[in-house]
């Protein structure tokens, strides 16, 4: 399989723009796709801001910043991804949305190209089966914020071939990330462990064991977590947290994964965390 040079990223939200940022810094050409030109514009501004922060912290040079930005083009049409060697999907954690994207992508993407999903929980085998190339499909799950976190999980579907796995591993390594290989089980490794902890923190709030500040302080100061679990839930997005808990609950059929009713209620209210300005904290 030819080396990966041009990477397409579907979705310009926090995961998509983070992957575009780090891939461009690592020397890959990047095409960032989203449905709206406005979202792309704001994603490019975010990437520029995060690169500037790295220049200020002296973790990258001004030249690296300039060259990385020059390597990213944006497109509000999937046709813009036609010539990519690898396309990474970072759309919302809803299987039907991802399936529709893969259907439309396969119609334009060259047949040799690899398709990856950054899904945080959904079966790679099932997503692969909705494409015309299950053997060239793989899970590459980055962590948020992508420029900071050292890990990516690699998940093979049942049909993923060795060449695809090797190319994905080489790409992730070139991005400077460590790899944890996970079997294709609901929510893989990180979220299988992290999300039940966050869900339990929400139950702790729901049952009145402690208030938001006490729960977060307890885990930050008592367990040395960089963020409290409720702050982290807001950071990940409460809709994403709920989707992952639902995948765990349905996929493993165990009541210990039942999403906390308070999490459900917040999502129903449109309180999705930082991105909607309101979650367990008020960001307005
Ligand atoms: N781009 C570039 N650099 C960034 C950045 C970004 N988007 N965000 C933060 N940074 C850098 C800062 O510049 C700073 O750099 P220095 O160490 O050189 O000073 C460093 O990261 C720390 O940032 P801050 O000083 O602003 O703030 P902080 O110390 O509170 O750290 C944090 C912020 C790195 C996000 C930290 O709070 C943290 O590690 N939180 C936990 C994050 C986590 O658990 N992520 C996984 C979520 S789960 C997931 O992603 C999987 C899923 O599918 C849901």
From TrEMBL:
NAD is among the record's keywords: yes
Recorded superkingdom: Bacteria
EC number: 1.1.1.157
GO molecular function: 3-hydroxybutyryl-CoA dehydrogenase activity; NAD+ binding
Keywords, alphabetical: NAD, Oxidoreductase
Binding site for NAD(+): 11-16, 34, 93, 98, 120, 144, 275
Keyword flag Transport: no
Pfam families found in the cross-reference section: 3HCDH, 3HCDH_N
Residues marked Important for catalytic activity (site): 141
Record field: transmembrane: none
Single Gene Ontology BP annotation: fatty acid metabolic process
PROSITE patterns linked: 3HCDH (PS00067)
Top enzyme class: oxidoreductase
The 3-hydroxyacyl-CoA dehydrogenase NAD binding domain, residue ranges: 6-182
UniProt domain 3-hydroxyacyl-CoA dehydrogenase C-terminal: residue ranges: 188-283
Annotated family: Belongs to the 3-hydroxyacyl-CoA dehydrogenase family.
Name the record gives this protein: 3-hydroxybutyryl-CoA dehydrogenase
Taxonomic lineage: Bacteria, Pseudomonadati, Pseudomonadota, Alphaproteobacteria, Hyphomicrobiales
């Amino acid at each position: 399989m030819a080396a990966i040079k041009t990477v397409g990223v579907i979705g310009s939200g926090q995961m998509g723009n983070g992957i575009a940022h780090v891939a461009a810094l690592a020397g890959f050409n990047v095409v960032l796709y989203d449905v709206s030109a406005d979202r792309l514009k704001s994603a490019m501004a975010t990437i520029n801001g995060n690169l500037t922060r790295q220049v200020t912290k002296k973790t990258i040079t001004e030249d690296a910043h300039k060259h990385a930005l020059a390597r990213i083009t944006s497109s509000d049409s999937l046709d813009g991804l036609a010539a990519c060697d690898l396309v990474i999907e970072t759309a919302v954690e809803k299987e039907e949305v991802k399936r529709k994207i893969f259907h439309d992508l396969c119609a334009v993407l060259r047949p040799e190209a690899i398709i990856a999903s950054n899904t945080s929980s959904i079966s790679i085998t099932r997503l692969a089966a909705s494409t015309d190339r299950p053997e060239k499909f793989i899970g590459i799950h980055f962590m948020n914020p992508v420029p900071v976190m050292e890990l990516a999980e690699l998940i093979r579907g049942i049909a993923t071939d060795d060449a695809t796995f090797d190319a994905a591993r080489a790409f992730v390594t070139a991005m400077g990330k460590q790899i944890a290989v996970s079997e294709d089980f609901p929510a893989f490794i990180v979220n299988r462990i992290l999300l039940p902890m966050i869900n339990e923190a929400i139950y702790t709030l729901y049952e009145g064991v402690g208030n938001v500040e006490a729960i977060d302080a307890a885990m930050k100061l008592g367990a040395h977590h960089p963020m409290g679990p409720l702050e982290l839930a807001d950071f990940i997005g409460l809709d994403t947290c709920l989707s992952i808990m639902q995948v765990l609950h349905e996929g493993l059929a165990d009541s210990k994964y039942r999403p906390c009713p308070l999490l459900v209620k917040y999502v129903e209210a449109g309180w999705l965390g930082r991105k909607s300005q309101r979650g367990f904290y008020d960001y307005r």
